[in-house]
Amino acid sequence: MGSKEIVLGNVNEDAELLKAHAEVYNHLFAYTDTLALRSAVELHIADIIHSHGQPMSLSQIASKLESPSPDVTCLARVMRMLVRKNIFTVDCNQSSGEEVLYGLTNISRWLLHDHELSLAPMFLTFTHPWIINAWYEISSSIKEGGTPFEKAYGQSFWERASKDPEFNNMFNIGMAAATKPTLDAVVKGYKDGFSGFKGTLVDVGGGIGRMIAKIVKAYPHIKGINFDLPHVVGTAPQYPGVTHVGGDMFKEIPTADAIIFKSVLHDWADEECLAILKNCKKALSQEKGKVIIVDVILHADGKGLFDDAVIGCDLWLMADCVGGKERTEDEWKKLLIEAGFTHLKITPLPTIMSLSIIEAFPQ
Ligand SMILES: C[S@@+](CC[C@H](N)C(=O)[O-])C[C@H]1O[C@@H](n2cnc3c(N)ncnc32)[C@H](O)[C@@H]1O
Q1: Structural domains of the chain in order of their starting residue, each with its CATH number
Q2: What's the confidence (pLDDT) of residue 150?
């Protein structure tokens, strides 16, 4: 590549240039936010403070770590970063000689391990080196094609999950934790749809079955099937009113009166989605059947709370899934019309990650 001389001017005399220089450093070290927080989640720091019932000093926190000789200086530096990012509070109003006290914020409360709606498993999964390694292959995938994850590991994400029980378990638990806080919104947001529905509802790619279990619990007249790959349903707990069925959605989907997907179609390129949707049409037992898609709608210029995270998730899908992507409303409509669904209804849910319910009717 030929090089041209680039004149950047004197960074010390040009405030805009200095600001841009600082931005490069901020981007360079942006990963330290994520990984400092990961270390705090691994160390259960929020749980330690929560169990104590009030803010704690560094030495008190250190004494509760599962370690005979923790490095308190290192811990202090991680906590300084996390206080700066509003993950923990610090009370510096101690009398001289007393140690400062660290407390929880709402952000760290979401990361308490024992909390019913804990996001800790999700955070640990999606920041795991197994997941992040694929990111180092993005530029070569852009140049040569192929999926970054496959370049890194010589197999697809789902193949790896089928062969490596530890990876499978980590992903299923992390995904279930990401899904759990959204379920109330799904159950309530689609109240009319579920209460008026009769028959069998199949959750395709339902993971360990949390969503269908919650739906059947709220609407016990629904017969629930959780359908996923055999190694996934093999690890799922039993839930009243839910039958687990192992299989491959590219081969056959169990017969259903309606089919629901949550965060499944975004894992796949349009071509694969068309194959899955074709199997849905075969599986729907009657003309009244429908497909209910609970998934993200991407707003490229959105200023909403989750719009940055959605763009990040889109890149995550690019790195780790074969052809996976977040779709705009127009892209969803195009895909479903191409799959032969003539009637669509999109209802945004007041919930995390810009989730919507997209109903698609084959007639
Ligand atoms: C992103 S996860 C979503 C899990 C769940 N629906 C949720 O929202 O928590 C995608 C799911 O699709 C499943 N899956 C992948 N390939 C599949 C296939 N060929 N047939 C059935 N399920 C599949 C995965 O095992 C995984 O549980």
Answers
A1: 30-113 (1.10.10.10), 132-361 (3.40.50.150)
A2: 97
The whole-model pTM stands at: 0.91
- From 264, 294, 317, 325, the mutation candidate for ligand 1 (largest count of ligand atoms within 8 A of CB) is 264
Q: Is residue 275 in contact with ligand 1, taking CB distance under 6 Å?
A: no
Q: Is the CB of 158 under 6 A from ligand 1?
A: yes
pLDDT at 5: 72
Closest atom, ligand 1, to C-alpha of 172 = 27
Which residues of the chain fall short of a pLDDT of 70? Answer: 1-3, 7, 94, 96, 286-287
Q: How far apart are CA 235 and CA 333, in angstroms?
A: 35
* CA 227 / ligand 1 centre spacing (Å): 9
Assess contact for 230 and 249: CB atoms under 8 A.
Answer: no
Sequence-ordered alpha helix ranges (H) in the chain: 15-28, 30-42, 45-52, 58-64, 72-84, 106-110, 120-126, 129-132, 138-144, 148-153, 157-163, 165-179, 183-189, 191-195, 210-218, 230-233, 270-283, 307-320, 329-338
Q: Is the CB of 174 under 6 A from ligand 1?
A: no
Strand order in the sheet with 88-91: 56-57, 101-104, 88-91
Residue 290: in which H helix or E strand, if any? strand 290-296
Residue 10: the pLDDT is 78
The pLDDT value given to residue 12: 75
Beta strand pairing call for 258-262 and 290-296? parallel
At residue 356, the pLDDT reads 95
Catalytic residues: 266
Torsion angle, alpha carbons of 305, 115, 320, 229, to 10: -130
Question: Is 179 close to ligand 1, i.e. is its CB under 6 Å away?
Answer: yes
CB distance 249 to ligand 1 below 6 Å: yes
Smallest CA separation from ligand 1 atom 13, residue: 205
Q: Which of the listed residues 160, 214, 228 should we mutate to test ligand 1's pocket, taking the one with most ligand atoms within 8 A of CB? A: 228
